[in-house]
Design brief:
Structural class: alpha+beta
Strand order of the largest sheet: 4-3-7-5-6
Strand content: 15-25%
CATH class of the domain at 86-157: Alpha Beta
Shape: rod-shaped
Number of strands: 7
Distance between the termini: 123 Å
Helix content: 40-55%
CATH architecture of the domain at 86-157: Roll
Number of helices: 5
Radius of gyration: 42 Å
């Protein structure tokens, strides 16, 4: 029975009904060195490109990404809050609106605003609906006052502004 199959197969090959398998354009009647190489190479390539990651490592990466995102959002919120923070100075200054900084004092604000008038007779800081009176002489003696975001400084001089 096996002989009969063998003869039929050989006759079909000779007649062209069955084409021999090829590897690299050569007949595959004998076992070729190419046989089975393509599936193994594809499998190795798939494993190398898949980047196997353990569940613990994947969870650690996700947690780190989450924390980094939270920190970035917090930094952005702080920056947005600081952008609107200003100190306003009413009086003889060339720069009446200054961006507020945490270390800003009344003296540094007057210098940054480019105060050009005579010595002030009075200085008032409007903060939260209250007025804080500052003696200009104590300011000139070095007793400076810390400013807060939103402070409005009113400077009065002995002369009236035009």
């Amino acid at each position: 029975m096996d002989m009969l199959r063998l003869e039929r197969t050989q006759m079909a090959k000779r007649s062209g009904r069955i084409k021999p398998a090829t590897c690299g354009g050569q007949s595959n009647q004998r076992k070729s060195p190419c046989a089975g190489v393509a599936p193994v190479a594809a499998l190795l390539c798939a494993i190398a490109l898949s980047g196997c990651v353990s569940r613990a490592k994947a969870k650690a990466q996700a947690d780190a990404a989450f924390v980094a995102g939270q920190q970035q959002a917090l930094a952005q919120m702080r920056q947005n809050a600081m952008q609107g923070a200003v100190v306003t100075i009413n009086g003889p200054v060339r720069q009446p609106v200054l961006p507020w900084t945490e270390r800003m004092t009344l003296g540094s604000a007057l210098v940054a605003a480019d105060y050009y008038g005579p010595d002030p007779t009075s200085i008032a800081i409007a903060r939260g609906g209250r007025a804080i009176q500052v003696d200009p002489k104590t300011l000139l003696q070095g007793q400076d006052i810390q400013l807060l975001a939103g402070d409005i400084i009113q400077i009065q001089t002995g002369t009236t502004a035009p």
